[in-house]
Structures are given as C-alpha cells and as structure tokens.
C-alpha cells in the first residue's frame, strides 16, 4: 500500500515545462547578462522554442487521439478550451500591469489606437506594452487558429506523406534565415512564420509516436543526447549568435523531437516518490504558464527581484501557485461545465 502511494506517473513533458518556465525567470533576472558559464546558461529564446514544440505536440495529440474530431461541435470545443486556458490569465496580468503603471507613473499604455493589438493579439510581429513576455503568448494563440488544419492534413495525407512533411518542415525551418538574408527581417522574428517550424516538429513527432503505439527507448541515451544538444545551443547563443539563429534552431527542434520520444517511452512508467520531488516537479509544470506570465510584471516592478534570482524564482512560483488555485482552476472548472453543456 505504501509503495503504491509513493509511486507517481512520470510526465516528462509536464516536468520539462516547469523547468523551462523557471529557466526563463532565471534568464530575465541574471542569465541575459552573460555572467553565467555559457554551457549552463539557457537562453530565454531556447526555452520559448521548446515551449512551442511542446504546444505543437499537445495540440496534435488532441486530434490524433480523437479527443477532438473535425466537426463543428468539436472544433468549437477546441477553441473554447484554448480560450479559457490562456485568455483569462492574460487579461488579469495585463489589467494589473496597466493599473500598476498608471498608479505609479500616470501613463496610459493602451488606448483606442492599440487596444485591439494589445489585448486581442492582432499583431504580426508581437510586442506587448503591458507585459513584454507575452510576445510568445501572442504567437502561441495564433498557432492555435491553424493547429486543427495542420492536424487534419497530418491525419489524412497518406501518399508520400513522409516526403511531404519533411519538405514542409525544411521550408519552415529555412524561412527564418531566408527572410533575414533576402528581406532584411530580424533573426529575432517574433511572429508565427519565423517560429512555425518549432510547433510543426512537435506535431510531426506526435504523429510519429501515435502511429507506433509502443516506443522502445534507451532513456539514459536520450537524456544524454538532449543535454549535449542543450549545452551546445547554450554555448552557440553566447559565442556564435548567427549560428544559433540558423543551425541552432534545427538543434533545438531535434531536442523537441527527442523530448517527445522520451515522454512517449516513459509516459506509462511510475516511479517511487518518497520525498515528493516528482510531485513538486509536476506541480511546477502544472503552474508553468502562470510562472511565465507573472514573472514578467513581477521583476519589472520590484528591484529586490531583479537583484536576487532565487527570490525572483520563489516569488514567481508562489504567485503562480496561488493564482492557479484561486483564479485559473476556478476558471477551468467553468470551462468544464460549459463544455459539458455543449455536449448535451
């Protein structure tokens, strides 16, 4: 009985989400200064790209595993689910940021000229005045719009599908450097087109592991390769910026693919959790969106947090935890009730 109680399911994707969220806080407080050993300093962009890959996997998984069908009712359910998961917290953090700036500086950051762009994510290159880190959220939300369409083609193209998907991925991957060299766009393209390859690789490998049902892996080897690739891209960002924005993007997509293989191979595995470490890591993963969202305004408005990375991480985690309990989870319960009414 005690052994069963101490055993927890190993959700690699959820744990990685938590690690990435904390790494973004670390990056925005101290990592960007370049004072950390390059190999161990995860750039915020690396974390965001892996987030995008995980989102691609999760969105495709919903359709490939038949949670959602390609019917009007299920597509409605899909978009409602995404709205309730993302938008309420986005609006709450944006409102608090707006009030904080207005009360401390008398500045009004949004008005009738930019409210649609700032609150409804109607931008091409994303930049958010109320919380700068929301640029990634804007891209994510725009990806949700086309995710069902890509999932449909993933499931229904059968002839020459491997060639088609490899070519499609390579075109997406090449777009970022091509747009820079031919059109003068920034490598730091904060738009969906420049980041689509990361979502897409997550969707492709979701289809791959779904087709194979059972994935036999050497988890130690996979973890070793993932860490080597991560250390390499960390180093590239610091010392070879152009290589990071070109070859580095492919290496990070490879990390995404290997993480999905690792997750698929271990998702049915249970491990002993006597000291609660796995439960803690899972909890951090569950509130990862909140950590990412809240830290953006916390570190901007507190000198203490900008000067102490550990306090910044602890405060961001605590705020995200209570935000999840008091705000996000009740909202998700409302979502569940609303979806049940749609079904009936």
What does the model show?
- By secondary structure, this protein is mainly α.
- It has one domain (2-343).
- 74% of the residues lie in helices and 2% in strands.
- It has 15 helices and two strands.
- The protein has helices spanning 2-5, 12-29, 44-64, 72-105, 115-120, 135-156, 161-183, 192-212, 219-239, 241-245, 247-266, 277-286, 288-298, 303-307, 309-343, and strands at 7-9, 270-272.
- A two-stranded antiparallel ribbon has the order 1-2.
- α2 packs across α12 (277-286), α2 (12-29) runs parallel beside α13 (288-298) and α4 runs antiparallel to α15 (309-343).
- The chain is globular, with a radius of gyration of 20 Å.
